[in-house]
Write a structure and sequence with these properties.
The chain is of the alpha/beta class and 422 residues long. The protein has 15 helices and 13 strands. 42% of the residues are buried.
Length: 422
Amino acid sequence: MELYEGDSFVMIANSDKPRNLKIAFVIGLQVPFQGAAWRRIEFFARYLSLKKFNVYVISPRTLYLACSEFAKDRKSESRGRTLFKLITVPLMLHVCKSRLLTSILEVVSSLFSGILLLLIKPKIIVLSIPPHQYLIGTYLASRLSRAKLIVDLRDPIDISYVKHYARYQALKTLMRIARTIEYSALYKASAILYVSEVMAKDLSRTMPPLSMKMHLVPNGADLTVYRPLGKTKMGKPGVFKLFFMGRFLEHINFSVILKALSILKSKHLNVKLYIAGTLDPVLYDEAKKLGVQDSIVYLGLLSANELVTVMNEMDLAVLPYYNDKNYRCSLPAKFYEYIACGLPILVSAPLYFEVARIVRDHGIGIWCPAEDVSCIVNAIMQLYKDRNKLMALAEKCLSFRSGIDRMHSAEKLISIINGFTD
């Protein structure tokens, strides 16, 4: 996200009078990196800096132990001139083979972050969650410094986190206690930001007192970066290009896409799947078993500008979920970024998932029930044969574009901050 003096983003942000209010963003992940969490926080930090707020970003510096190169591969990216102060706390250890030990070390690291916050003395602290372990140290620092704490809840703190420890009752109990402490800290926050309506409904039902503190601040997309380039989206004649970017998290069911590729290949349709991000070895092994490894093109880790170029050459993005109610509020940043580039989306998920409802109601892609391979195959075949329908979906995405501008979310955050300082 390079910002130039003539860019409308900079011109709009610089239009207000100086503020000089000190704001600290805390994120429990080593930055910069290309993940959605950092793209969101970086955008907010830059935008508020251009609005003349005095902005700090606090991040850990991580040392990985007992980890594969695959786990450690988090390519960083510099996006133009730095407008805010980025501060890294003392070393945080991440032990890949011990989730419990890593969680404990993250809590310790959060206490170091808390000490740093006490030295900076911000008036507003914005904590990005997950990881949840930074909530305790950040909350204590906000209380001691009398700063307002805003929790930016990108994913819910839910009890399903405990399932990783289900084999060991003692660890399961310990994690439940930790979750309870974190929920208690949420009650004390000055404001809770959430990224989807379903998440708000869940929080209101499970934690009614939070309802008055909750504010919808969607991920959206940075429209100055993610945009149509005016190129043809069809690629090579006869080749239909599917696209996925990001990590293969536990709720992403890519087996259905691989099985669909296998069926399409048997029908002699030239369909390729392009992947940008980290390639899951398990996925590649499954692709080999199905005989579709030659239908997958791995692009590696790409910069934002490279992603935009690639997305403008694709035909259809894919976003397949398992039928797991714990992820019904999922509305990832990539979803908005696909739309911003005019790339239709095939979502495979239960209809009670918010992402499925948006795709179906607004006609910006294709919806298939979760794990319905035949629906996915039929949808791709139809778009493969009817390019006019594919272009109509792309036009729907572009017409939807103005409503997903991340600048609106940044302005909402400023409005919330002003409510604490006026």
